[in-house]
Every structure is written in C-alpha cells, then in structure tokens.
Amino acid sequence: MMNITGRFGSFVPMLQSVKRVVPTAAKDLLPHTAPGCIRLAHTDLKVPDFTDYRRPEVIDPTKSSQDSSEGRRTFSYLVTGATTVIGVYAAKTVVTQFVSSMSASADVLAVSKIEVKLTDIPEGKNVTFKWRGKPLFVRHRTEKEIAAEESVNLSELRDPEHDKDRVQNPKWVVVLGVCTHLGCVPISNAGDFGGYYCPCHGSHYDASGRIRKGPAPLNLEVPFYEFTEDDVIIVG
Amino acid sequence: MANLRKTHPLLKIANDALVDLPTPSNISLWWNFGSLLGLCLISQIVTGLFLAMHYTSDIATAFSSVTHICRDVNYGWLIRNMHANGASFFFICIYLHIARGLYYGSYLYKETWNIGVMLLVLVMATAFVGYVLPWGQMSFWGATVITNLLSAVPYVGTDLVQWIWGGFSVDNATLNRFFTFHFLLPFMVLAATLVHLLFLHETGSNNPAGLNSDVDKISFHPYFSFKDLLGFAALMLSLVALALFLPYLLGDPDNFTPANPLDTPTHIKPEWYFLFAYAILRSIPNKLGGVLALLSAILVLARVPFLHTSKHRGLTFRPLTQALFWLLVADVMILTWIGGMPAEPPYIIVGQLASIAYFSIFLVLMPSAGYIENSMLEWECKG
C-alpha cells in the first residue's frame, strides 16, 4: 500500500492515483474533485461520483467511519475467507485429479484380481499364473507334504510361521513366485526341502513356501485370496 | 532497509514484471489476452505432461492409448478434454491478442511484435503436430495433405517431404517424430514468451489512446494482477464448461475412426483455427502459389509495422481504418467458413475474393486510409 500525505507533492504523481486527504496547509493547493479523492494528473477531468457504488455507512464524509468499520471489515474478511476456502478446495481438487491420474488405471485394476479353478491342477503339481505382472504359484499338495510341513519345528525357521497360518485349505498353497532375496523366480519342485529352489543365489523354500536355506530373509509372500467355491479361488 | 522484493536477484525479476511494473491506467480488457495466453500455455504444458505419461506414439497403439486415457486413466477423460479444448482457447486468445495489436498500433514495438509473429508460427506448428498424435482419420489425412505441400518446393521438394516423413508416406516414423516435436515446441514457446516480455518491458505497454502514458502509470499489483486473475477465472470457467458440457463441439467426428492410409475421408479439413489459412491455400489453383499464399497469410503480419502511415498510433480516432479493420475481421470469418466448406462452387469464388480482400486490406487499403486520415487532420482556417 502506498499512502502519501500532501506534503510529498512533487513525488505524488508517480505513486497512487488516489490519495488520502491529510489536513495540512498544502491541502488547499491540491485540487479536490470528489469527496475523499485528490486528482494529480488529468486534473481538468471531473472525477465521477461513485456514491452508487459505495457502502451506505460511509457515503456521508462528515460522519465518522469508525462506528461501521468493524462491520465493514468483518464483511470483507468473510468474503475473502470464503473465497480462499473455495480456492483452496478447487486447488486441492485439481491437484488430486492430476496426481490420481498417475495411479493404477481401470485396465490395470481390472486385471488386479484373477480367478483360479483348482480342479485343473493335479495333485503334487505346481502351476504358475501371471498376477499383477508377477508369477503366482498355486500348488496342490499331497497328504505327505501337508503332514511334513505341519510338523516342522518353528525354532528352525528363519521367518517362523506355522503352515496353518499360511494356508486356508492345507491342500492348496498360494504364494507369490518372487524370491524374497532379490526377486528372481524360484523353480518349483526343486531344492532340498521339497518345495522351491531359487537358482539365482541358492535359496531353498519348503512345500509351504517358507525359507529354509540360503540368503533369502523371508518366506514367499502369501497374497490375499478367498475361496468363492470349494475349487475356485479369487486372488487379489 | 531496502525491500527484499526489490533487491533480491530473483525476487526483483518477478517484482519488476508483476508487482512494481508501471502500467498505463487505461488499458482495457483487450490487454488481458497476453496473460491469458500465458495461462493457456501453462495449462497445455501441465495437461500435456500428464497425457504424455499414458500416450504411446507407435502407430499400432497410439489411437488405443488415447482411448485408454479417456476410459481407464483416473480423470484421463478430463485431462484429455482440457488439453484438446485448451488448444482452441489458445487460438481464441492469440487471435484476439493479435487483433488488439493491430487495432491499437502495438506493432510499433517492432521487436516485441516480431517475436510475437514467431510465437504465432511456433504455436501453429505445435498445434499441427499435436493434432496428428491421436492417429485418427483426420489426424493422418491432415498430416498427409499439409506435409505434401512441401513437395511444392522447387528441386528439393520430394526429398524434403520424404525427409520430414522419415519414409515414403506419413507412417510410424512420422508419428514418433511429431510426438517429439509436440513435446519440445511448447518449451520453445515458453522461452520465446520470456523474450517477448523482455522487449515489452523495455518500453512498457501501449494503451487505448495510443498516447504516451508516462504521466498516468499505476503499479501492476494490485490493479492488473487482480484484473488478470479475473480474466483467468473467466477463461478457466469457459474452458472447463466446454470440456465438461460440449467436449467435442469443436472437433471432427472423423477422428474417432482410426487412421486408414487406404481410405480418404470425403472432406478433409483442419481444426477451426487453421481454416482461414486453409481457405487462402486452396484459393490459388497453383500448388506452389497456394503454399506461398499460405505462408504470406501469416507472415504479412511481420510487414504491418512498415505499412503504418498514420500520425495516430491506434484506430481509436481513425474512422476509415476502423471500418477496414472490422472488414478484415469479417473477411477472416468468411475465410474460416469457406475453409470448412468443400472446394466447389460457389465457395471457390467466394474464397478467392475473400483472399484478395485479406491481402488488399493489409497491403493497400489500410495504408491508404492512413494517408487519407492524415490529410483529414489538416484544418482549413476559414477567414
């Protein structure tokens, strides 16, 4: 805000075109053309009367404006505040829309779930599906394998998890085929523990997908899945 | 203590352009289009960047990638609509900005004006290559028709066209390089815009009276910062309304059909903002002549400062030239209409007459009217 008194007469034309009138001796030297306004350029022009646009409380220049100042200020601040709120909301909406355009699109979400018919998988076999761009192992375990995995002592495991906590139906193991060491795809029905073997750095997993030997720190990840029927699961 | 805003090396650049910039107090709404063009550019760059995250420029997948954006990508439909309609708004603003320059004699700031002509060419080039990217029928055939114009260049024409194509027709190589150009050119537009403003700020803005306004300048902020903000709100409201309610109003239905090099649409025409130039191109029966007329239609703007004959800067007090200005506006609208029509009678003759009028107004009529108005300024003292 540039508020200048009438004493700075020579500099005033460079600054605001509307000045506050300060009672000084110089006041009378400066042309008045409308209440509350001094014109310093184009002084031959008549400044229009803006009464129609002014607030009723401040039209009369002889009345103090202090009484109405709080009300006027409150209104202005309310309008500014409301505009700010709307503006911030609009900005947030725009940013959210742009940012979310980078999230998974509908076609990616559409293949984010797969349905697997388990009866197609023979006993003792492991089938690999593509799920979310990664291999998914679905293994049909034999009774012998189930018994062996359930009897494993948890203290022997690097990442202790009981077999019961890794399966919903013991006959079916559903795990991500991504080695927890550095992400290679393990080979099924290989390794020293009757499960999986990762050829990259020699990690051995058992028939429950638990790490038993080698550098991998964790068991193979069990994704979210649910049985929609006895022989059908939906993964994801 | 000196104000940091005025002394900090970075802040003072922004300050001198957007806060303390001395601005004529009487500039009207026609002076809003400069900042609106800046807004359009930023909007197109931002929406374009997000589209580029999902678009693929191979001919096998380009069309379907646009479909993917509209159907699968979160808010992709909105970003795509904003970008497509934003291009139209860019041209609305640029044509009104140029019209302001012509009417008020702003072209007398020659450096600013010449950079402006360059900007127009750059923006037209950007829009042209951008329209090819969806790889619809109109994208393909518009690219084919316009790039074929280069074969009119004597001796090297055919080689030049095949060099631009990267092959023997508009194909995969063409689409890939057009995507590259479409990505690159806006940043050249941005750089040229900064140079445009650099020269403008050497002189300060013109004003509707066409007179020196040094005695009555006001600070850019808050007067014109808020006025520009109001303009931004008006533009964004219109753009969003168009994108949400009538997204394909300015588009061509043929572009919903994937490009087929073996099937030419019945009526090939560019987007509305190129139609006037297209009409001028088609009005000359000779191929090279048509190409030269097309180029001249844009580049005649560079001659305008040298065709200024009046003692007045703008048209505010020049009734004859005002009439010619509005005749030019009407003529461009007629040319736009003709450009969208098939090349058949009676449109051919109308287009030819309108093209003659276009060049006559710029090169002959307006300069002559300037001379006449100058002589009308001399008063005879009646004794």
TrEMBL record, chain B:
Its membrane topology: Multi-pass membrane protein
Location(s), subcellular: Mitochondrion inner membrane
Annotated Gene Ontology cellular component terms: mitochondrial inner membrane; respiratory chain complex III
Co-factor requirement: heme b; heme
GO molecular function, one term: oxidoreductase activity
GO biological process, one term: mitochondrial electron transport, ubiquinol to cytochrome c
Domain of life: Eukaryota
UniProt-annotated binding residues for heme b b562: H83, H182
Residues that coordinate or bind a ubiquinone: H201
Entry binding sites for heme b b566: H97, H196
Transmembrane segments: 29-52, 87-107, 113-133, 140-158, 178-200, 229-250, 272-302, 323-341, 347-366
Cofactor note: Binds 2 heme groups non-covalently.
Domain Cytochrome b/b6 N-terminal region profile per the UniProt entry, residue ranges: 1-209
InterPro entries per the UniProt record, alphabetical: Cyt_b/b6_C (IPR005798), Cyt_b/b6_C_sf (IPR036150), Cyt_b/b6_N (IPR005797), Cytb/b6-like_sf (IPR027387), Cytochrome_b (IPR030689), Cytochrome_b_C_euk/bac (IPR048260), Cytochrome_b_N_euk/bac (IPR048259), Di-haem_cyt_TM (IPR016174)
Record keywords: Electron transport, Heme, Iron, Membrane, Metal-binding, Mitochondrion, Mitochondrion inner membrane, Respiratory chain, Transmembrane, Transmembrane helix, Transport, Ubiquinone
The Cytochrome b/b6 C-terminal region profile domain, residue ranges: 210-380
Family note: Belongs to the cytochrome b family.
Subunit structure: The cytochrome bc1 complex contains 3 respiratory subunits (MT-CYB, CYC1 and UQCRFS1), 2 core proteins (UQCRC1 and UQCRC2) and probably 6 low-molecular weight proteins.
Described function: Component of the ubiquinol-cytochrome c reductase complex (complex III or cytochrome b-c1 complex) that is part of the mitochondrial respiratory chain. The b-c1 complex mediates electron transfer from ubiquinol to cytochrome c. Contributes to the generation of a proton gradient across the mitochondrial membrane that is then used for ATP synthesis.
Name of the protein this chain belongs to: Cytochrome b
Native species: Nerophis ophidion (straightnose pipefish)
Phylogenetic placement of the source organism: Eukaryota, Metazoa, Chordata, Craniata, Vertebrata
